[in-house]
Amino acid sequence: MAKRLWIAFAILFLCAGAASAQDAKTVLQTAQKAMGDVGSIQYSATGHLNSFGQAWVPGADWPVTNLTSYTKTIDYGAKAAKEDLIHSEPNPMVKGGGRPFAGDDRQQNLVSGPYAWDMPGSAPIPQLGAAAERQLQIWLTPHGFLKAAMESNATAKKEAAGTVISFAYGKYKIEGTVDAQNLVTKTDTWLPNPVLGDMLVETTFSGYKVFDGVKFPTTIVQKQGGSTTLELNVSSVNANPGLNMSVPEAVIAATAPAIKVESQKLGDGIWFVAGGSHNSMVVEFPTYITVIEAPLGEARSLAVIAEAKRLVPNKPIKYLINTHSHFDHSGGVRTYVAEGATIITQEMNAAFYQKAWAAPRTLAPDNLSKNPRKAEFLPVKEKYVLTEGDRTLEIFHEAGSMHNGGMLLVYFPKDKIFEEADDYTPDLPQLAAPSGIRPPVFMANLMKEIQLLKLNPVTVAPMHGIVVPFSELQKAAASGKG
Protein backbone atom coordinates (compact mmCIF):
# COMPACT_ATOMS: atom_id res chain seq x y z
CA MET A 1 0.00 0.00 0.00
CA ALA A 2 2.77 2.41 1.02
CA LYS A 3 4.65 1.63 -2.20
CA ARG A 4 1.56 2.45 -4.27
CA LEU A 5 1.17 5.78 -2.43
CA TRP A 6 4.79 6.72 -3.15
CA ILE A 7 4.31 5.87 -6.85
CA ALA A 8 1.14 7.97 -6.94
CA PHE A 9 2.91 10.92 -5.31
CA ALA A 10 5.79 10.60 -7.79
CA ILE A 11 3.43 10.57 -10.77
CA LEU A 12 1.57 13.58 -9.35
CA PHE A 13 4.85 15.47 -8.84
CA LEU A 14 6.05 14.74 -12.37
CA CYS A 15 2.70 15.76 -13.85
CA ALA A 16 2.73 18.99 -11.86
CA GLY A 17 6.26 19.74 -13.11
CA ALA A 18 5.29 19.05 -16.71
CA ALA A 19 2.19 21.23 -16.36
CA SER A 20 4.27 24.03 -14.86
CA ALA A 21 6.76 23.88 -17.73
CA GLN A 22 3.90 23.82 -20.26
CA ASP A 23 2.25 26.80 -18.54
CA ALA A 24 5.56 28.66 -18.64
CA LYS A 25 5.94 28.05 -22.37
CA THR A 26 2.44 29.30 -23.05
CA VAL A 27 2.93 32.43 -20.94
CA LEU A 28 6.28 33.16 -22.62
CA GLN A 29 4.94 32.70 -26.14
CA THR A 30 1.98 34.96 -25.39
CA ALA A 31 4.23 37.63 -23.88
CA GLN A 32 6.65 37.47 -26.79
CA LYS A 33 3.78 37.93 -29.23
CA ALA A 34 2.44 40.89 -27.23
CA MET A 35 5.82 42.61 -26.78
CA GLY A 36 7.42 41.75 -30.10
CA ASP A 37 10.20 39.34 -30.96
CA VAL A 38 13.52 41.03 -31.74
CA GLY A 39 17.00 39.74 -32.47
CA SER A 40 18.64 42.92 -31.20
CA ILE A 41 17.56 46.13 -29.55
CA GLN A 42 18.90 49.57 -28.74
CA TYR A 43 17.45 51.97 -26.19
CA SER A 44 18.46 55.45 -25.07
CA ALA A 45 17.66 57.22 -21.85
CA THR A 46 18.60 59.70 -19.15
CA GLY A 47 18.33 59.21 -15.40
CA HIS A 48 20.67 58.35 -12.56
CA LEU A 49 23.61 56.02 -12.02
CA ASN A 50 24.40 55.34 -8.37
CA SER A 51 27.69 54.22 -6.80
CA PHE A 52 27.11 50.67 -5.55
CA GLY A 53 28.65 49.82 -2.18
CA GLN A 54 29.68 53.43 -1.51
CA ALA A 55 26.98 54.68 0.89
CA TRP A 56 27.95 57.51 3.22
CA VAL A 57 26.76 55.42 6.19
CA PRO A 58 25.83 51.71 6.28
CA GLY A 59 22.31 51.05 5.06
CA ALA A 60 21.88 54.40 3.30
CA ASP A 61 21.22 54.76 -0.43
CA TRP A 62 24.09 54.48 -2.86
CA PRO A 63 25.38 57.98 -3.82
CA VAL A 64 23.67 59.34 -6.93
CA THR A 65 25.17 60.78 -10.10
CA ASN A 66 23.22 62.36 -12.98
CA LEU A 67 23.02 60.22 -16.09
CA THR A 68 22.89 62.76 -18.90
CA SER A 69 23.24 60.24 -21.72
CA TYR A 70 22.72 56.49 -21.83
CA THR A 71 22.48 54.09 -24.78
CA LYS A 72 22.55 50.31 -24.61
CA THR A 73 22.68 48.04 -27.64
CA ILE A 74 22.11 44.29 -27.26
CA ASP A 75 22.45 41.49 -29.80
CA TYR A 76 20.71 38.54 -28.16
CA GLY A 77 21.90 35.90 -30.65
CA ALA A 78 25.53 36.97 -30.34
CA LYS A 79 25.23 37.36 -26.55
CA ALA A 80 26.83 40.76 -26.93
CA ALA A 81 26.09 44.21 -25.54
CA LYS A 82 27.52 47.71 -25.63
CA GLU A 83 26.67 50.32 -23.02
CA ASP A 84 27.57 53.97 -23.68
CA LEU A 85 26.98 56.52 -20.95
CA ILE A 86 27.89 59.96 -19.68
CA HIS A 87 27.28 60.91 -16.07
CA SER A 88 28.19 63.82 -13.83
CA GLU A 89 28.06 64.75 -10.19
CA PRO A 90 25.08 66.59 -8.72
CA ASN A 91 25.55 70.14 -7.52
CA PRO A 92 25.85 70.39 -4.57
CA MET A 93 27.89 67.19 -4.29
CA VAL A 94 26.42 64.31 -2.34
CA LYS A 95 28.07 62.48 0.52
CA GLY A 96 29.58 59.08 -0.11
CA GLY A 97 32.13 57.30 -2.28
CA GLY A 98 32.53 56.15 -5.85
CA ARG A 99 33.37 59.69 -6.89
CA PRO A 100 34.12 62.59 -7.13
CA PHE A 101 35.22 63.36 -10.64
CA ALA A 102 35.44 66.59 -12.57
CA GLY A 103 33.06 67.34 -15.43
CA ASP A 104 31.50 64.53 -17.45
CA ASP A 105 32.61 60.94 -16.96
CA ARG A 106 32.26 58.96 -20.18
CA GLN A 107 32.13 55.19 -20.12
CA GLN A 108 31.76 52.45 -22.70
CA ASN A 109 31.25 48.95 -21.29
CA LEU A 110 31.19 45.95 -23.62
CA VAL A 111 30.66 42.20 -23.50
CA SER A 112 30.73 39.53 -26.19
CA GLY A 113 30.38 35.92 -25.13
CA PRO A 114 33.02 35.21 -22.46
CA TYR A 115 34.88 38.51 -23.00
CA ALA A 116 34.28 41.85 -21.28
CA TRP A 117 36.17 45.09 -21.75
CA ASP A 118 35.88 48.87 -21.39
CA MET A 119 36.76 51.55 -23.91
CA PRO A 120 37.51 54.75 -21.97
CA GLY A 121 39.64 55.88 -24.93
CA SER A 122 41.07 54.32 -28.06
CA ALA A 123 42.58 51.29 -26.29
CA PRO A 124 40.49 48.51 -24.74
CA ILE A 125 40.86 47.67 -21.07
CA PRO A 126 40.04 43.99 -20.39
CA GLN A 127 37.61 43.46 -17.54
CA LEU A 128 38.46 39.94 -16.44
CA GLY A 129 35.69 38.41 -14.38
CA ALA A 130 33.06 40.93 -15.51
CA ALA A 131 31.69 38.94 -18.45
CA ALA A 132 29.36 36.74 -16.36
CA GLU A 133 27.55 39.68 -14.79
CA ARG A 134 27.36 41.64 -18.05
CA GLN A 135 25.97 38.56 -19.79
CA LEU A 136 23.45 38.17 -17.00
CA GLN A 137 22.34 41.79 -17.47
CA ILE A 138 21.39 40.94 -21.08
CA TRP A 139 18.87 38.37 -19.86
CA LEU A 140 17.46 40.70 -17.20
CA THR A 141 16.02 43.00 -19.90
CA PRO A 142 12.37 42.36 -20.87
CA HIS A 143 12.98 40.80 -24.31
CA GLY A 144 16.17 39.12 -23.17
CA PHE A 145 14.35 37.50 -20.27
CA LEU A 146 11.72 36.02 -22.60
CA LYS A 147 14.38 34.63 -24.93
CA ALA A 148 16.47 33.07 -22.16
CA ALA A 149 13.42 31.58 -20.48
CA MET A 150 12.17 30.10 -23.79
CA GLU A 151 15.52 28.33 -24.23
CA SER A 152 15.52 26.98 -20.67
CA ASN A 153 13.49 24.51 -18.70
CA ALA A 154 11.45 27.31 -17.17
CA THR A 155 8.64 26.82 -14.68
CA ALA A 156 5.62 29.00 -13.92
CA LYS A 157 3.87 29.96 -10.72
CA LYS A 158 0.78 32.16 -10.34
CA GLU A 159 1.09 35.07 -7.92
CA ALA A 160 -0.91 38.22 -7.24
CA ALA A 161 1.33 40.37 -9.47
CA GLY A 162 1.16 37.92 -12.36
CA THR A 163 2.92 34.73 -13.47
CA VAL A 164 6.41 34.23 -12.08
CA ILE A 165 8.69 32.43 -14.53
CA SER A 166 11.83 30.81 -13.09
CA PHE A 167 14.82 29.15 -14.72
CA ALA A 168 18.52 28.49 -14.20
CA TYR A 169 21.19 30.27 -16.22
CA GLY A 170 24.40 28.47 -15.40
CA LYS A 171 24.82 28.74 -11.64
CA TYR A 172 22.47 31.72 -11.49
CA LYS A 173 18.74 31.66 -10.87
CA ILE A 174 16.58 34.11 -12.82
CA GLU A 175 12.96 34.94 -12.06
CA GLY A 176 10.63 37.26 -13.91
CA THR A 177 7.02 38.38 -13.58
CA VAL A 178 4.65 38.57 -16.55
CA ASP A 179 1.49 40.56 -15.75
CA ALA A 180 -2.09 40.25 -17.02
CA GLN A 181 -1.24 42.44 -20.04
CA ASN A 182 1.48 39.92 -21.01
CA LEU A 183 4.27 42.38 -20.18
CA VAL A 184 7.46 41.64 -18.25
CA THR A 185 7.25 43.89 -15.20
CA LYS A 186 10.14 42.58 -13.12
CA THR A 187 13.23 40.37 -13.25
CA ASP A 188 15.31 39.07 -10.35
CA THR A 189 18.60 37.30 -9.99
CA TRP A 190 21.25 36.87 -7.30
CA LEU A 191 24.94 37.73 -7.58
CA PRO A 192 27.77 36.86 -5.20
CA ASN A 193 29.11 39.81 -3.22
CA PRO A 194 31.92 39.61 -0.64
CA VAL A 195 30.02 41.86 1.79
CA LEU A 196 26.36 41.00 1.14
CA GLY A 197 26.63 37.32 0.16
CA ASP A 198 24.00 36.09 -2.32
CA MET A 199 22.81 39.58 -3.28
CA LEU A 200 19.41 40.24 -4.85
CA VAL A 201 19.48 42.17 -8.15
CA GLU A 202 15.94 43.40 -8.81
CA THR A 203 14.93 45.22 -12.01
CA THR A 204 11.45 46.67 -12.53
CA PHE A 205 9.85 47.85 -15.77
CA SER A 206 6.88 50.18 -16.16
CA GLY A 207 5.23 52.66 -18.52
CA TYR A 208 5.35 50.42 -21.59
CA LYS A 209 4.95 52.16 -24.95
CA VAL A 210 5.24 51.05 -28.56
CA PHE A 211 8.61 51.99 -30.07
CA ASP A 212 9.55 50.93 -33.61
CA GLY A 213 6.94 48.16 -33.55
CA VAL A 214 7.85 46.67 -30.15
CA LYS A 215 6.62 47.31 -26.65
CA PHE A 216 9.32 48.58 -24.30
CA PRO A 217 9.21 50.17 -20.82
CA THR A 218 9.80 53.90 -20.45
CA THR A 219 10.98 53.49 -16.85
CA ILE A 220 13.63 50.98 -15.75
CA VAL A 221 14.88 50.80 -12.15
CA GLN A 222 17.51 48.35 -10.96
CA LYS A 223 18.32 47.77 -7.30
CA GLN A 224 21.33 45.90 -5.95
CA GLY A 225 21.66 45.18 -2.27
CA GLY A 226 18.27 46.81 -1.63
CA SER A 227 19.17 50.25 -3.02
CA THR A 228 18.85 51.74 -6.50
CA THR A 229 21.91 51.50 -8.76
CA LEU A 230 20.35 52.50 -12.08
CA GLU A 231 17.28 54.54 -12.97
CA LEU A 232 16.43 55.09 -16.65
CA ASN A 233 13.82 57.27 -18.33
CA VAL A 234 13.74 55.74 -21.81
CA SER A 235 13.18 58.17 -24.68
CA SER A 236 13.83 56.06 -27.79
CA VAL A 237 14.07 52.42 -28.86
CA ASN A 238 15.31 50.88 -32.11
CA ALA A 239 14.28 47.34 -32.97
CA ASN A 240 16.80 45.04 -34.66
CA PRO A 241 19.63 47.57 -35.14
CA GLY A 242 22.28 44.84 -35.01
CA LEU A 243 25.59 45.18 -33.20
CA ASN A 244 28.73 45.05 -35.32
CA MET A 245 31.41 44.39 -32.72
CA SER A 246 34.55 42.30 -32.64
CA VAL A 247 36.55 41.35 -29.57
CA PRO A 248 39.96 43.10 -29.54
CA GLU A 249 43.00 40.80 -29.64
CA ALA A 250 44.28 42.37 -26.42
CA VAL A 251 41.08 41.31 -24.65
CA ILE A 252 41.22 37.75 -26.00
CA ALA A 253 44.86 37.39 -24.94
CA ALA A 254 44.39 38.92 -21.48
CA THR A 255 44.89 36.66 -18.46
CA ALA A 256 44.18 37.29 -14.82
CA PRO A 257 47.28 38.70 -13.14
CA ALA A 258 48.57 37.06 -10.00
CA ILE A 259 47.78 38.91 -6.79
CA LYS A 260 50.85 40.90 -5.83
CA VAL A 261 51.89 42.07 -2.39
CA GLU A 262 54.76 44.52 -2.23
CA SER A 263 55.94 45.36 1.27
CA GLN A 264 57.70 48.60 2.12
CA LYS A 265 59.18 49.01 5.59
CA LEU A 266 58.16 52.34 7.09
CA GLY A 267 59.57 51.83 10.57
CA ASP A 268 60.55 49.19 13.06
CA GLY A 269 57.76 46.59 12.82
CA ILE A 270 55.62 48.70 10.44
CA TRP A 271 55.11 47.72 6.79
CA PHE A 272 53.09 49.27 3.99
CA VAL A 273 51.64 46.45 1.85
CA ALA A 274 50.78 47.51 -1.70
CA GLY A 275 50.75 45.70 -5.05
CA GLY A 276 47.41 46.77 -6.49
CA SER A 277 44.77 49.49 -6.45
CA HIS A 278 44.30 49.18 -2.66
CA ASN A 279 46.81 49.02 0.16
CA SER A 280 47.08 47.58 3.66
CA MET A 281 49.52 47.88 6.55
CA VAL A 282 51.08 45.24 8.81
CA VAL A 283 52.05 46.25 12.35
CA GLU A 284 54.05 44.10 14.76
CA PHE A 285 53.28 44.21 18.48
CA PRO A 286 55.30 42.25 21.06
CA THR A 287 52.88 39.29 21.09
CA TYR A 288 50.63 39.76 18.05
CA ILE A 289 50.06 41.35 14.62
CA THR A 290 47.61 44.07 13.66
CA VAL A 291 46.62 44.56 10.02
CA ILE A 292 45.13 47.81 8.76
CA GLU A 293 42.57 47.43 5.96
CA ALA A 294 41.12 44.36 4.20
CA PRO A 295 40.15 45.59 0.73
CA LEU A 296 38.42 44.01 -2.29
CA GLY A 297 37.81 40.38 -1.32
CA GLU A 298 39.06 37.14 0.17
CA ALA A 299 41.82 36.50 -2.37
CA ARG A 300 43.50 39.82 -1.60
CA SER A 301 43.11 39.31 2.15
CA LEU A 302 44.62 35.82 2.02
CA ALA A 303 47.63 37.23 0.18
CA VAL A 304 48.10 40.01 2.75
CA ILE A 305 47.67 37.54 5.62
CA ALA A 306 50.37 35.31 4.11
CA GLU A 307 52.66 38.33 3.77
CA ALA A 308 51.98 39.39 7.36
CA LYS A 309 52.97 35.94 8.60
CA ARG A 310 56.12 36.03 6.47
CA LEU A 311 57.08 39.44 7.83
CA VAL A 312 56.19 38.56 11.41
CA PRO A 313 56.44 34.76 11.87
CA ASN A 314 54.99 32.89 14.85
CA LYS A 315 52.59 35.63 15.97
CA PRO A 316 48.80 35.58 15.54
CA ILE A 317 46.83 38.29 13.75
CA LYS A 318 44.87 39.64 16.69
CA TYR A 319 43.25 42.74 15.15
CA LEU A 320 42.08 43.97 11.77
CA ILE A 321 41.43 47.72 11.55
CA ASN A 322 38.71 48.49 9.02
CA THR A 323 38.90 52.16 8.00
CA HIS A 324 35.33 52.37 6.66
CA SER A 325 32.41 50.37 5.33
CA HIS A 326 32.70 51.01 1.57
CA PHE A 327 32.68 47.63 -0.13
CA ASP A 328 36.07 48.05 -1.82
CA HIS A 329 37.57 48.56 1.65
CA SER A 330 35.52 45.95 3.53
CA GLY A 331 35.22 43.08 1.04
CA GLY A 332 37.99 41.10 2.74
CA VAL A 333 37.07 41.70 6.38
CA ARG A 334 35.31 38.34 6.76
CA THR A 335 38.58 36.59 5.90
CA TYR A 336 40.14 38.04 9.06
CA VAL A 337 37.18 36.87 11.14
CA ALA A 338 37.84 33.36 9.80
CA GLU A 339 41.50 33.88 10.79
CA GLY A 340 40.39 34.59 14.37
CA ALA A 341 41.02 38.35 14.40
CA THR A 342 38.88 40.90 16.22
CA ILE A 343 37.57 43.60 13.90
CA ILE A 344 38.22 47.20 14.95
CA THR A 345 35.76 49.47 13.15
CA GLN A 346 33.70 52.58 13.79
CA GLU A 347 30.75 51.75 16.01
CA MET A 348 28.14 52.38 13.30
CA ASN A 349 29.50 49.48 11.21
CA ALA A 350 29.32 46.47 13.55
CA ALA A 351 25.54 45.91 13.36
CA PHE A 352 25.61 46.37 9.59
CA TYR A 353 28.35 43.78 9.14
CA GLN A 354 26.61 41.28 11.42
CA LYS A 355 23.37 41.58 9.45
CA ALA A 356 25.07 41.48 6.03
CA TRP A 357 27.23 38.51 6.94
CA ALA A 358 24.18 36.50 8.03
CA ALA A 359 23.03 36.24 4.39
CA PRO A 360 23.50 32.93 2.51
CA ARG A 361 26.71 32.53 0.47
CA THR A 362 25.90 29.66 -1.87
CA LEU A 363 27.20 31.33 -5.06
CA ALA A 364 30.72 32.01 -3.78
CA PRO A 365 31.36 30.35 -0.40
CA ASP A 366 34.24 31.90 1.52
CA ASN A 367 36.36 30.61 4.41
CA LEU A 368 34.01 31.98 7.05
CA SER A 369 30.94 30.37 5.47
CA LYS A 370 32.78 27.05 5.22
CA ASN A 371 33.93 27.18 8.84
CA PRO A 372 31.55 29.54 10.67
CA ARG A 373 32.65 31.39 13.77
CA LYS A 374 31.24 34.36 15.65
CA ALA A 375 32.63 37.71 14.58
CA GLU A 376 34.19 39.71 17.40
CA PHE A 377 34.11 43.50 17.12
CA LEU A 378 35.91 46.27 18.95
CA PRO A 379 33.76 49.31 18.10
CA VAL A 380 35.41 52.74 18.06
CA LYS A 381 33.39 55.85 18.89
CA GLU A 382 35.89 58.72 18.63
CA LYS A 383 39.25 57.31 19.72
CA TYR A 384 40.87 54.02 20.62
CA VAL A 385 44.50 53.25 21.47
CA LEU A 386 46.23 49.93 20.88
CA THR A 387 49.34 49.62 23.01
CA GLU A 388 51.66 46.82 24.06
CA GLY A 389 55.28 47.17 25.11
CA ASP A 390 56.80 50.11 23.29
CA ARG A 391 54.26 50.01 20.43
CA THR A 392 51.38 52.50 20.45
CA LEU A 393 48.86 52.96 17.67
CA GLU A 394 46.10 55.58 17.86
CA ILE A 395 42.79 55.25 16.01
CA PHE A 396 40.57 58.30 15.47
CA HIS A 397 37.14 58.84 13.99
CA GLU A 398 37.35 61.47 11.26
CA ALA A 399 34.52 63.85 12.08
CA GLY A 400 33.01 65.76 9.17
CA SER A 401 34.09 63.36 6.42
CA MET A 402 32.12 63.77 3.19
CA HIS A 403 33.40 60.41 1.95
CA ASN A 404 32.17 58.17 4.77
CA GLY A 405 30.52 58.99 8.07
CA GLY A 406 32.42 56.25 9.91
CA MET A 407 35.91 56.95 8.57
CA LEU A 408 38.81 55.97 10.83
CA LEU A 409 42.32 57.42 10.77
CA VAL A 410 45.39 55.72 12.23
CA TYR A 411 48.45 57.46 13.69
CA PHE A 412 51.75 56.13 15.01
CA PRO A 413 52.92 58.83 17.46
CA LYS A 414 56.45 57.46 17.90
CA ASP A 415 57.13 57.02 14.18
CA LYS A 416 54.97 59.99 13.07
CA ILE A 417 53.28 57.84 10.40
CA PHE A 418 49.73 58.78 9.42
CA GLU A 419 47.33 56.38 7.63
CA GLU A 420 44.28 57.64 5.75
CA ALA A 421 41.85 56.26 3.19
CA ASP A 422 40.26 58.07 0.24
CA ASP A 423 40.66 61.68 1.40
CA TYR A 424 44.03 61.95 -0.34
CA THR A 425 45.42 59.77 -3.14
CA PRO A 426 49.02 60.45 -4.16
CA ASP A 427 49.68 59.73 -7.84
CA LEU A 428 51.03 56.35 -8.77
CA PRO A 429 54.28 57.03 -10.69
CA GLN A 430 53.49 54.59 -13.51
CA LEU A 431 50.25 56.34 -14.37
CA ALA A 432 50.10 59.24 -16.81
CA ALA A 433 47.04 60.62 -15.03
CA PRO A 434 46.29 60.91 -11.32
CA SER A 435 44.98 57.68 -9.80
CA GLY A 436 42.21 59.57 -8.09
CA ILE A 437 41.30 63.24 -7.79
CA ARG A 438 39.87 64.28 -4.44
CA PRO A 439 38.03 67.58 -4.10
CA PRO A 440 39.35 70.31 -1.82
CA VAL A 441 36.62 69.64 0.74
CA PHE A 442 37.99 66.12 1.35
CA MET A 443 41.55 67.24 1.99
CA ALA A 444 40.48 70.36 3.84
CA ASN A 445 38.54 68.26 6.33
CA LEU A 446 41.47 65.85 6.67
CA MET A 447 43.88 68.70 7.40
CA LYS A 448 41.44 70.21 9.90
CA GLU A 449 41.19 66.87 11.74
CA ILE A 450 44.99 66.52 11.87
CA GLN A 451 45.21 69.96 13.45
CA LEU A 452 42.34 69.42 15.90
CA LEU A 453 43.81 66.09 17.01
CA LYS A 454 47.21 67.75 17.39
CA LEU A 455 48.96 65.14 15.28
CA ASN A 456 52.43 65.74 13.94
CA PRO A 457 52.88 63.37 10.97
CA VAL A 458 56.00 63.15 8.86
CA THR A 459 54.88 60.32 6.55
CA VAL A 460 51.50 59.62 4.92
CA ALA A 461 50.54 56.00 4.20
CA PRO A 462 47.40 56.15 2.01
CA MET A 463 45.12 53.22 1.30
CA HIS A 464 45.26 54.22 -2.39
CA GLY A 465 48.47 55.38 -4.05
CA ILE A 466 51.99 55.57 -2.70
CA VAL A 467 53.69 56.55 0.56
CA VAL A 468 54.69 60.22 0.53
CA PRO A 469 56.02 62.84 2.94
CA PHE A 470 53.36 64.76 4.83
CA SER A 471 54.51 67.87 3.01
CA GLU A 472 53.00 66.41 -0.19
CA LEU A 473 49.57 66.26 1.45
CA GLN A 474 50.01 69.84 2.65
CA LYS A 475 50.84 71.00 -0.88
CA ALA A 476 47.92 69.06 -2.40
CA ALA A 477 45.50 70.49 0.15
CA ALA A 478 46.76 74.01 -0.51
CA SER A 479 46.41 73.61 -4.28
CA GLY A 480 43.14 71.67 -4.12
CA LYS A 481 44.57 68.85 -6.23
CA GLY A 482 45.12 65.38 -4.82
Q: What's the helix and strand layout?
A:
Layout: H1 2-35, E1 40-50, E2 64-75, E3 80-88, E4 105-112, E5 115-118, E6 125-126, H2 131-139, H3 142-150, E7 155-159, E8 162-169, E9 172-178, E10 184-193, E11 197-206, E12 209-211, E13 214-216, E14 219-224, E15 227-239, H4 249-253, E16 262-267, E17 270-274, E18 280-284, E19 289-292, H5 298-311, E20 317-321, H6 327-330, H7 333-339, E21 342-346, H8 350-357, H9 367-370, E22 377-380, E23 383-388, E24 391-397, E25 408-412, E26 417-420, H10 440-452, E27 459-462, E28 468-469, H11 470-479
Parallel strand pairs: 19-20, 20-21, 21-22, 26-27
Antiparallel strand pairs: 1-2, 1-15, 2-3, 3-4, 4-5, 5-6, 7-8, 8-9, 9-10, 10-11, 11-14, 12-13, 14-15, 16-17, 17-18, 18-19, 23-24, 24-25, 25-26, 27-28
Helix pairs in contact: 1-3, 5-7, 10-11
Structure, explained:
By secondary structure, the chain is of the alpha+beta class. It has 2 domains: about 25-250, Lipoprotein localisation LolA/LolB/LppX (outer membrane lipoprotein receptor (LolB), chain A); about 260-480, Metallo-beta-lactamase, Chain A. It is built from 11 helices and 28 strands. Strands 6-5-4-3-2-1-15-14-11-10-9-8-7 form a 13-stranded antiparallel β-sheet. It has a 7-stranded mixed β-sheet with strand order 16-17-18-19-20-21-22, covered by helices on one side. It has a 6-stranded mixed β-sheet with strand order 23-24-25-26-27-28. Helix 1 (about 1-35) packs across helix 3, helix 5 crosses helix 7 (about 335-340) and helix 10 crosses helix 11 (about 470-480). The radius of gyration is 25 Å and the shape is elongated. The N and C termini lie far apart (about 80 Å).
